[in-house]
Amino acid sequence: xxDQAIAKADARSTxxxxxxxxxxxxxxxxxxxxxxxxxxALQAAGVITNFxxxxxxxxxxxxxxxxxxxxxxxxxxxxxxxxxDMSVPTxxxxxxxxxxxxxxxxxxxxxxxxxxxxxxxxxxNAVVVGRFKANPxxxxxxINYVCMGIIRVVWVNKQIYPDMIASTKDVSQAFDAIYRxxxxxxxxGNPLASLRLPLVMMVAIVIIGQIVLSRTSFGxxxxxxxxxxxxxxxxxxxxxxxxxxxFIVAAITATLGGLTVTSLSxxxxxxxxxxxxxxxxxxxxxxxxxxxxxRGSIIGVLGGVLIIGLINNIMTLIGxxxxxxxxxxxxxxxxxxxxxxxxxRSLGRDDA
Amino acid sequence: MTTHKKLDRSGxxxxxxxxxxxxxxxxxxxxxxxxxxKFFNVFNLTTISKTAAMNACVAIGFTIVMIxxxxxxxxxxxxxxAGVVGLGLKKYVGYEISVPLALCSGALVGLVNxxxxxxxxxxxxxxxxxxxxxxxxxxxxxTGGNSIALSTPDAFSVADFLGHRLIPLVxxxxxITLVLVLLFQFLLSSTRWGRNFYMVGGNxxxxxxxxxxADRQIVVAFVLSGLLAAxxxxxxxxxxxxxxxxxxxxxxxxxxxxTIIGGTAMSGGKGGVFRSFVxxxxxxxxxxxxxxxxxxxEVKIFLAGFILAVVVLYEAYASYRxxxxxxxxxxxxxxxxxxxxxNRSTDAASSRG
Lengths: 352, 353
Hints:
The complex is a heterodimer. Chain A is 74% helix and 1% strand. By secondary structure, chain A is an all-alpha fold. Chain A has one domain: ABC transporter involved in vitamin B12 uptake, BtuC, CATH 1.10.3470. In chain A, α3 packs antiparallel against α12 (239-265). Chain B is an all-alpha fold. Helix content of chain B is 79%, strand content 1%. In chain B, α3 packs parallel to α9, α3 runs antiparallel to α12 (214-240) and α9 crosses α10 (192-202). The two termini of chain B are 32 Å apart. At the A-B interface, α6, α13 and α15 of A face α7, α13 and α15 of B.
């Protein structure tokens, strides 16, 4: 009897959990829809032009593709309960600049070198945060500064250009193509609209990420580690390994993002990737992933990324300077976290 | 006997660890005096104390927040904000009003941080990351991306006053910092109000049972952090008669390293303002030496990050080691292994016999 009652309560709580989860995810896309409507309203009022066009919507997703790639990787770190990987900006910059340097040898060696750099940073973070339990924020900040120092010392404040370093023109063109390669040309009969590689990569990574988090044992272990580390440990989950693995995933996606950013700007420099830490955390938080770990989904994070893209697009169309947009982004960020914390508390689901 | 000796050794080690920042300071000073060219003279040492003054001031508040178990990432932008407000408003209202306004702006940022952390219960890392971003946008909005430079005679006379040498190594700005460091060291170590910060950081529920309003204490810590960061920023800007859009950008790294090297625990409840101050001085000596060796600013930035990483790693490794041996009684283990060895030798003897 008692067992049955418990089982029933259990089933109901998971059903309720699923419902809340569903509402969370839908809510994010609902918010995105509101921003789209805001854009339409502003255009109708004559404040902005060119919002409601297929080209503009393609631009929006195109502009956040790199952020999406980076944010999916970082959300593994958040999901596993380590808050955020603050070493992402210089992981991007360092892997990008190393790739440009190795274009001297060839295209594929450059890509390999970039991933080697990313993996080393990921491994270092994995060992120190996973095994030695260093404070993840402070440690990854420190690694961020170290990588910044490495770039500054090795390249002495110089920027390096792919077309000047590459051995042949083909190699530099191949590197340029990381951002510019058109996977599907002339979308919907429009010769200007095309599906480019970053967007395809982002969609692939989102799908893989979502499957890994929700359908594999690795994802389940991440969830358990993130929501109840001690329980995970006593259940036999290797929490040190799982925590570390999340950082390696984040470093790999940061490397991908870094390669794309460097290919976009056609320059290897220390400031590539600046600001991606804050933007990724914002996307993760808006996407409904709890910063205390173990709650949220990659589909939600994708929603967060799209909302950021919409906000950026509308602000740019209104004519707010890029750096002043930070003010609004920061305010939205804090508001969303506040509402999130408050609603979770009122639901009694806040274990932060 | 042996266990007693062992305890003594670990006692000495922990003494070294506890006072490591003073040892690092002395070693850095000695090494640079011995090897760095043109290091040990009044002019260069005054340069060091002047350079350290801003970050030392900022480190006071940062340390208090960290003692409470929180993190304030916004200090870098508060420094810049205070400089921009203090200098930008000078031509309208003069320093008498613009400087208090700059300090108030810092305190206000701290108040917002503190309230969001305690009332809305958002992690301090997230809150201050958010306010940092907002302030970056705000500063850009105010300055339009340009530096604010004052070139009026009265601004220069204030700058000259703040930078002139009262006694060797000490200028009025350094004196302000010194007074603040000593004041807050006294408050934190010798008053109940100050000790409460340690209680809150060490164990919040114990603090609550002890009748401390933890939330209020945390808000006060954040306000102090904002206020002191603004103090450091505005006086630095006044002395250089200029506020640039990125004057505080590197401070977070320097102050964070110094606070952790100074022995303030990342988890809260442990540390001291004076230690952070000595750590700022020690780091500044090292950076100054690097420049004197002709190694350039890049090496300085690299080393600053590297030192921070090494210290964080050391702290994490130490607590990892501690977690592994905690609860183990070394004297019993020693006895056991000694007994084991004894048994084995008697076994060997008997089998041989």
